[in-house]
Amino acid sequence: MAASNPLATVPPALKKITVFMRRAEELDRDTSHPDSKLVAYYCRTHAMDQAMLLRTPENSKELMPFLIALMDRLEDDKKSLPAQSPAEAKGLVEAFADRVLQKADEDDQLGVWDKDTAKVFYAAGVFYEAMEQFKELAGPEVERKRKYCKWKASDILNALKEGRTPTQGGGFSATPGRGIRLPPPALPPAPAPAPAPRPSPRPSPSLPLLTSLPLPPPSTAPPPPPGPLPRPASSSSTRSASSTRSANAPTQAVLEDAKELCYFAIAALEHREVPLAQERLEKALHKLRELA
Predict the structure, then answer these.
(1) Domain co-membership, 167 together with 264
(2) Taking the model in full, what pTM does it have?
(3) Which tens digits make up the pLDDT trace of 168-187?
């Protein structure tokens, strides 16, 4: 009998991280895009960061097996990923999220408003939210795009529920010179026109299937702040930038690994798991010796 997956069930106290864990699992199954595994890894690292914030003295014992399994998974995954600086990793994750958002915007501009379009907007928002781990590197534009994706997904779901036409516009315009429009924040939606045949969505190559996970309940989210969103960088320019590694990328990666291991050792000590804390600290020292 195959061993059970200790990460298959997220503890109730960590419900907030479920969407990042499931999105990572979805990307694990994707073979259409070379960066899917990397984005899955950063979805899990963000889930780990959030899990540590949600840990309390009362739930620490319950969460420890899950946290240990997640830490082990991150350590294993990192071995198969190239060394990258935080700035390089941020650029790759953002470029991936931008491509997902562009696909959703193309469907939106074509008038293809269904649950699948809402799910793609929602997926892009999850990837932008995972970029919180990059802190100041992410910048305000990432937060604007996250809010926009959340608003678009909610608006489409509410429109389907209410029998009206969703607010079209915003996002990235694929047509040169067409400009980028955001929905007016104060105007109510116009009455729905008579139903008309809707075109099929455009094919979007090199994107994983992002519509298999359930959506959260629709909510009335405020529209994004006015102003244009930046167009995503072309895949060729992104790949060119990512292929040029900074000289200190390996050093930075080793330091980040050591910090994560020390952080988890402290968590283990708080739970009086001395052997586990010792093991993580020894691994951290081993990492730091690589810099000697």
Answers:
(1) no
(2) 0.71
(3) 875 454 443 333 343 333 33
